[in-house]
Amino acid sequence: xxxxxxxxxxxxxxxxxxxxxxxxxxxxxxxxxxxxxxxxxxxxxxxxxxxxxxxxxxxxxxxxxxxxxxxxxxxxxxxxxxxxxxxxxxxxxxxxxxxxxxxxxxxxxxxxxxxxxxxxxxxxxxxxxxxxxxxxxxxxxxxxxxxxxxxxxxxxxxxxxxxxxxxxxxxxxxxxxxxxxxxxxxxxxxxxxxxxxxxxxxxxxxxxxxxxxxxxxxxxxxxxxxxxxxxxxxxxxxxxxxxxxxxx
Length: 248
Ligand SMILES: Nc1ncnc2c1ncn2[C@@H]1O[C@H](COP(=O)(O)OP(=O)(O)O)[C@@H](O)[C@H]1O
Ligand SMILES: [Mg+2]
Description:
- The protein is 35% helix and 25% strand.
- By secondary structure, the chain is an alpha/beta fold.
- α7 (173-188) links the parallel β7 and β8 (192-196).
- α3 packs parallel to α6.
- The N and C termini lie far apart (42 Å).
- The structure holds adenosine-5'-diphosphate and magnesium ion (MG).
- Magnesium ion (MG) binds at residues 48-49, 90.
C-alpha cells in the first residue's frame, strides 16, 4: 500500500523487545512524520538504544512497525536500510584504518557506482571539516570528527529516516552543536530524524516533537513548543511529585 498523506513515515505500535528472557520494552507507541525531527529522551537504561535497535531490525521484537507505507514488523536490518531507514549506532563506529573517503564508500556498499560517488560527496558537503580530511585515515580524526563521519556514513544512502543514538556523547559543547546543526540541516533537506540525546535542551531545540521513555515504555509525548513541557518532562523522568530540577 502506498503511503497516504496522512500516514506517518514511521509508525510503531505495541512494540515489545528485550534480550533473551529479559523484557526491556513493552507497549511502545511512537510515530515520526515525513521530514519531522523527533527527540527520544529518557534516563539511562530506559531502553532508548533498545528501541532504536528494535526498530531497525537489529533485535527481535513483537508488535507492529510500518515504515513508508510498508509492514516492516519482521524486517531485518538490510530490509530497513533498503527501505530508507538508517540507524547510526551509539558510539562512533568508524573503520579507523580506512580513510575518511573509504569509510563513506563502504557505507554505500552495493549502490550503483555513479550514485554512490555522488552521494558520498553530498554527505561530505554537510561536514566541511571532515571533507578536508577525506584522504586521511579515520584514526587521525578527533572524537567529534569521527562522530561526524559516522553521521555522514548514515547519509550516503540518502535515508528517509535517520535514527541517531546519542550523537553528541563524549563531545565538547562546540562539537555537540556542530553535530546537531548537521542534523538540523538534514532535516531542512527533508530527512526525518529520530534523535536520542542526553542533552535535553539541545535535543528539544533540534526537534519538533519529543517522546520520553522510562522503564521501557513511553511516558510522554509532546510538541517541543508546548509551554508546560519542562514540568511534564520532569514528571516523566522522576515520576509524580518529583522536585529535583532537570539537568541538561
Ligand atoms: N545486550 C544486552 N543484554 C542484556 N541486557 C541489556 C543489553 N543491552 C541493554 N540491556 C538492558 O536493557 C535496558 C535498556 O538499555 P538501553 O536500551 O541501552 O537503555 P538506554 O539506551 O536508554 O540507556 C537496561 O536495563 C540494560 O541493562
Ligand atoms: Mg543508549
